[in-house]
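Section 3.1: Structural characterization of target chains.
Under the original work plan, the team committed to producing a structural model for every single-chain target entering the pipeline before any wet-lab resources were allocated. The record below documents one such target. The sequence was received from the expression subgroup and is listed exactly as submitted; it comprises 286 residues.
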Amino acid sequence: MFVYEALHWASSFLRERGREEGVAEIALRHVLGINQAQLLSMMREELPEADWVRFQEILYEHGKGKPIQYIFGYEEFYGRKFSVNPSVLIPRPETEELVLGVLKRLRLLFALDEPLEVVDVGTGSGIIAITLKLEEPKLAVTASDVSPAALQTAQANAANLGANLSFVQGDFLQPFIGKKRFDCVVSNPPYIGLAEREELDLLVKDHEPELALFSGEDGLDSYRVLSRQLPLILKEKALVAFEIGQNQGEAVKHLLESSLPGAKVEVEKDINGKDRMVFAIITENR
C-alpha cells in the first residue's frame, strides 16, 4: 500500500459516509507525525503496515461519527496544541479572532505595564484564558467553568503550556459577585438555541457537551445572565468581549447597552463575514 493509495481509499471511504474528505490527509499526517509538505513528498512511498492499520482504525471511528479531534485527543489553537475530550468543546478558528480582538483592545485601552485582572467565563479547554496569558504574560487571568471535568482539562492544558492561571468553579460570574472586580471579562458561552438542535451536524450534536452548546430556546440565555451580572463585577474602566452566533449581534449589543449605560458597544464580523464578536468598552467617565 503506497501513501497515495491509502489516501485515495480514505477519501472514498469518508465521502461514502458523508464526512469531509480532507480529514484523510489530516489523519495520515497525525499517524506519521509529519507536516503537509513531508506528506506530499512521500506519496510514492510504501506505508508501513502498523501505520496503515492505525490509519484505518482512526477513519473507521470517525466514519461512525466521532470527531477527529476527540480521536486524536488534541486540537491546535493560536499555534499551540490543546488537549480536548468530550467534556469540552472543540476549539474553532473563529475564537482565535475573538482572542485577537481582546488583545488589540486591551493594548489600546490600558497600559499593560501593570497587572490587569481578566476572567474567561466558561473556559472549557482553556484556549482563551491560556492564550491571553501566554500572549500577554502580565495579565492576571482567571478561568472559570461550571463543569469540574472542563476545569480539569483546562488546568492540564495550562500546565502543559506553562501558563500560570487561577481556576474557579462556578456558574457564570456568580463566584465573583461581592468578592472581586475585573478589568476584562471575555466569554465564548453556550449560544445555540434549542430550536436549532436538529440542524446541527451529528459530529457536534452527538459528541460535544450539551452544557457548552445550548442556551435556552433562542440561544441568548447565557448573554442575559452575563449582562445582569457584569455591573456587579466590572471595574470603572473595563472591556467586555463575547463570541456570538451569527444572527445574535444586535440582540447581544442591546443587552450590553442596557446593562452598561454609556458603554461603547460594537459588533464585529469574522473572516467569513458573519457577526461573531461583540465588544463593550467602558470608560471611567461614563
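The first helix runs from residue 3 to 16.
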